[in-house]
């Protein structure tokens, strides 16, 4: 147990020799890398050092790791390697190492290679670990938040950004195994900060097979070697010679497939009428979500039965329902206590006394909701609610599922359907309008445009921001349906103008 926590806090996944060798072969075959100096900043048991000594016989190799035992093992393991005299392996904590001094002693070309720790800052704080950068600004996060834009970040992201700094006025290449999401974030930041100074490449690797880890991982290469196209090329695996697609920055956002995006970029734009929303947020499913067990009789997530008026109960479809196209029936109902955010809830006392009593009896659960959004709000407040929630027809898509599965959702038992807050939706007064927009959204141009922008490895790939980038007006025009679109446009209200 102690050992596994140790491994966890040091993000310890040792690279098999076979994979390290394949990485080095890819660097030589596809990128003609020929370094004079090689640095492995967290070398572990030394697989990248052995592979480098073997294939880069003239390079000087420096390996460092925080773990004394690994340093000894790596040093022993190279004694039989050719050119072992070229390597120096020593114990050092990455965060205490004087990298400026070390790097300034090396001349071009430098190869920074390896597999930095696989651990996030929030995991480290759960473990109460000190394995974090510069105690001064890192522990209170400000420094890293400024760099990564987030309170929780991968330690490898921070390290990679350091490696890029080392190459800010040197020629060289970074080649590391990391999460695909880390590679993407770093490449975007490098692009924003350094323009076209670096070229970048991502090769997918099978993390399950090599590390037993269920994560999308890759070899990320960032190099000062020029490439005519500075978009990041993404390859299926280390043996591929042709990229699957190119990631790049377009219209201020990073898109997954620049070629496809450019084919459909005329569909980008804010839609004036149709505004994507996310479902209801209440953070208290045990009380707010119920199953019908009889006439006006319901059971909540605490296993308690209650007789309630129907007034505040609505059919609920969750991400799993929408993701699996289960829309003609519902399992649960949700208590919708407000028609708009911040609305006074005390009227429930008169309009539905049993519902009021039900909430009152369980108010400790609602008052103790952690999120600060509920502070200083009327009792039993919910979020993600407005007049749009009560329109009868909806088009919904789960933010969590890795497919563009739009569902047309009709009212159930005469009431508009509500969704949980991981579902994104548009709403409509009439079936005809909903069906018209559904036709636009599920047509190839709209699907290909959206697909080109979505990173499917994200935990929540289909975001409101992405959906809002598509102009349905432009799709209608593309499909020759602009006149019909304009008729709907002229009809009812326009949320963007409110
Ligand atoms: C994912 S493993 C990879 C090891 C090696 N690079 C490889 O590819 O097999 C991460 C390594 O980072 C080392 N490590 C963790 N925190 C470190 C730190 N603060 N300074 C230096 N090395 C560290 C761990 O001991 C571990 O060997």
TrEMBL record:
Where do transmembrane segments lie in this chain? Answer: none
Any idea which GO molecular function terms this record carries? nucleic acid binding; site-specific DNA-methyltransferase (adenine-specific) activity
What does the record list as coiled-coil region(s)?
none
Identify the PROSITE patterns for this entry.
Answer: N6_MTASE (PS00092)
Annotated keywords = Methyltransferase, S-adenosyl-L-methionine, Transferase
Give an example GO biological process: methylation
Q: InterPro entries recorded for this chain? A: DNA_methylase_N6_adenine_CS, N4_N6_ade-DNA_methylase, SAM-dependent_MTases_sf
| Protein name as catalogued | SAM-dependent methyltransferase
Q: Which organism is it from?
A: Chamaesiphon polymorphus CCALA 037
Its taxonomic placement starts with:
Bacteria, Bacillati, Cyanobacteriota, Cyanophyceae, Gomontiellales
């Amino acid at each position: 147990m102690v050992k596994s926590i140790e491994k966890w806090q040091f993000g310890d996944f040792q690279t098999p020799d076979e994979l390290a060798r394949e990485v080095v072969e890819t660097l030589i075959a596809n990128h003609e890398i020929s370094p004079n100096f090689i640095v492995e900043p967290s070398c572990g048991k030394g697989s990248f050092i052995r592979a480098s000594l073997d294939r880069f016989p003239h390079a000087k190799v420096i390996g460092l790791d925080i773990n004394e035992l690994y340093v000894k093992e790596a040093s022993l393991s190279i004694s039989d390697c050719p050119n072992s005299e070229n390597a120096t392996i020593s114990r050092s904590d990455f965060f205490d190492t004087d990298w400026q001094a070390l790097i300034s002693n090396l001349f071009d070309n430098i190869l920074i290679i390896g597999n930095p720790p696989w651990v996030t800052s929030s995991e480290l704080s759960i473990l109460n670990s000190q394995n974090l950068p510069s105690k001064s600004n890192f522990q209170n996060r400000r420094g890293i938040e400024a760099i990564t834009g987030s309170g929780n970040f991968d330690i490898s992201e921070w390290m990679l950004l350091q490696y890029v700094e080392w190459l800010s006025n040197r020629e060289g290449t970074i080649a590391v195994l990391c999460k695909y999401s880390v590679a993407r974030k770093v490449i975007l930041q490098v692009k924003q900060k350094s323009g076209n100074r670096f070229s970048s490449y991502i090769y997918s690797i099978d993390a399950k097979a090599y590390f037993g880890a269920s994560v999308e991982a890759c070899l990320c290469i960032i190099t000062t070697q020029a490439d005519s196209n500075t978009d990041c090329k993404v390859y299926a695996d280390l043996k591929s010679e042709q990229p699957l697609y190119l990631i790049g920055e377009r219209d201020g956002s990073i898109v997954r497939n620049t070629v496809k995006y450019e084919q459909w970029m005329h569909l980008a734009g804010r839609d004036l009428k149709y505004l994507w929303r996310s479902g209801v947020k209440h953070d208290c499913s045990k009380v707010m979500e119920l199953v019908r067990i009889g006439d006006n009789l319901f059971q909540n997530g605490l296993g308690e039965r209650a007789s309630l008026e129907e007034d505040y109960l609505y059919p609920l479809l969750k991400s799993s329902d929408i993701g699996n196209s289960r829309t003609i029936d519902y399992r649960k109902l949700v208590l919708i206590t407000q028609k708009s955010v911040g609305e006074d809830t005390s009227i429930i006392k008169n309009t539905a006394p049993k519902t009021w009593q039900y909430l009152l009896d369980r108010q400790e659960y609602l008052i103790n909701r952690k999120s600060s959004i509920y502070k200083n709000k009327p009792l039993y407040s919910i979020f993600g609610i407005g007049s749009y929630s009560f329109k009868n027809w909806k088009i919904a898509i789960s933010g969590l599922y890795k497919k563009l599965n739009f569902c047309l959702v009709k009212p159930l038992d005469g009431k508009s359907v509500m969704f949980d807050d991981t579902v994104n939706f548009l709403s409509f007064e009439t079936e005809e309008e909903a069906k018209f927009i559904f036709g636009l959204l599920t047509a190839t141009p709209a699907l290909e445009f959206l697909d080109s922008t979505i990173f499917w490895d994200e935990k929540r790939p289909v975001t409101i921001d992405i959906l809002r980038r598509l102009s349905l007006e432009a799709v209608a025009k593309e499909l020759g349906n602009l006149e019909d679109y304009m008729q709907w446009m002229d009809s009812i209200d326009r949320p963007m103008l409110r």
